[in-house]
Amino acid sequence: MSVVAQSTRGWVLDARSLIDEGYSPCTRRKGETNTHLTCFFKKQCFHISKSHYRETVSAAAEGGDTELLQKDDKPTKKRKRKRSELNQGEIDSLAFHEKIRSVVLEGTKSLVDSARSLGYLKGETLTEEDKKEEEELLPSQDCSLAALCEMAKELPLVDDEEQEDEEQEERAQSLLGEDGSCTSHLDLFSLVTENRADGAAVVTLMGEEYVIPPRSAFLLSDFTRIQPLVHYGRRFELIVMDPPWENKSVKRSRRYSSLPSSQLRRLPVPLLASPNCLVVTWVTNRPSHLRYICDELYPHWGVEVVAEWFWVKVTTSGQFVFPLDSQHKKPYEVLVIGRYRTSATDSSSLSETSAVPVEDQRLIVSVPSALHSQKPSLSEVLKPYVGAEANCLELFARNLQPGWTSWGNEVLKFQHTNYFTLTPADDGAAVPKDEAADTPASSSP
Question: Global pTM?
């Protein structure tokens, strides 16, 4: 069960189960046959049993939250700077933390206690098979997709002015064929690619195998070639984005290219959002980014801030992955939630879910992925606010979700088969393509 516990404070999610729910049934398409598979995201990616690093917890203990913290017998010593030595950004961060500290502490304790009463977050007892899997290295996070997107900038784009609306929409999409192929691999960088099947498919794209969830669509492109998404002809009731914020950690690790926050204004959110669309943005714990979203970015798009939620990261034993009062990293991240409003928005154009208020300061508690920047799916917790049949879009995505459209220059990153355990299904065998019930359409509309 992906939503383990729920209360007025928020939710406890099993993030790995949320992924796995979208991959049954799953088929590998190759040649004249489809092989049925069981497909699970690798367990070791979500087995965070200890805090990520050692740090003195005395300050947190004074606050009474030792139950949730990972203690260490040999904490490292770290010179504490005087308050006067803090720069303005650090002062702002401290003030924000103090404002929401009790919400995070008390809410997390309540939700973790609820989850534990149901047998979750009590620390897993590993089987021998699990222990063997734990010893395996995490899948490599090396990804060449961003570099390929950079090269794809040399490809010509369709001249928008010479295309009629209907023709643009038709030209803006490409379907995976019965064998998992595209008309051309170049289409991946210039068209929205769809899997219209009701089952997941293991397909070969650009010489690599990826697991594509059912009823999903994606555009693999960088910031400068997002036009096909606009011409896709679909408006969305939910837009979630996880921008590659600039920060020192990213610059040091060089895991991915960051984007100046000012560039986010160029995203065509008003062209993608339906009236009253819910817009959700993941934010790092940097007050300047939070202020930019609330004071500049959302107003620029016509989005009204309605709530701030917090993703709280805990270990499999329900302890914070970082001490709550750590000066280095916090065990939570912020989500800024807004509603898209325009002068054209009137009562007759709003959906039935538009009147559903979004409660402020809700918590999403989960064991985080050990893979950098992999966020939990928000599909289940946001469903009451947008409706079960809502069109959903993720920007700057690094993975796909069933029923969602996704865009980014690494949009297939965590769909690579390296991140999944694939085994032949018990019904097992391979079946002819024309007998498979989950085969998608093979020709363009």
Answer: 0.84
